Amino acid sequence: MQNDKIISEILDLVTTEDEKDSLTLVVEDLLSDLYKVDHSEFEKKMGQMEEKISVLVKQVPAAELPNFLGQLKEKLIATASVKVTLSFKPTVSFISRLNKTLDAIVEVEVNPDILGGVVVESNGKHVDMSVKKVLDGLLASV
Amino acid sequence: MDVTSQIFLYGLALAVITLTLTIFYLISLYRDLVKKLANVKAGEKIKVKADLDQTTKRVIDAVTDEVQKKMETQFSSIIAGSKTNLEKDIASIVSEVRTKLTSDVSGIGQTLKEEVVSADTAAKKVLEEEHDKVKLELAEFKKKQMDEIVAKAKIILPQVLKDVVVKSMDPKTQEDLIINSLENAKRQNNI
Question: Which of B158, B178, B185 sits opposite A127 (nearest CB)?
Answer without folding.
Answer: B185
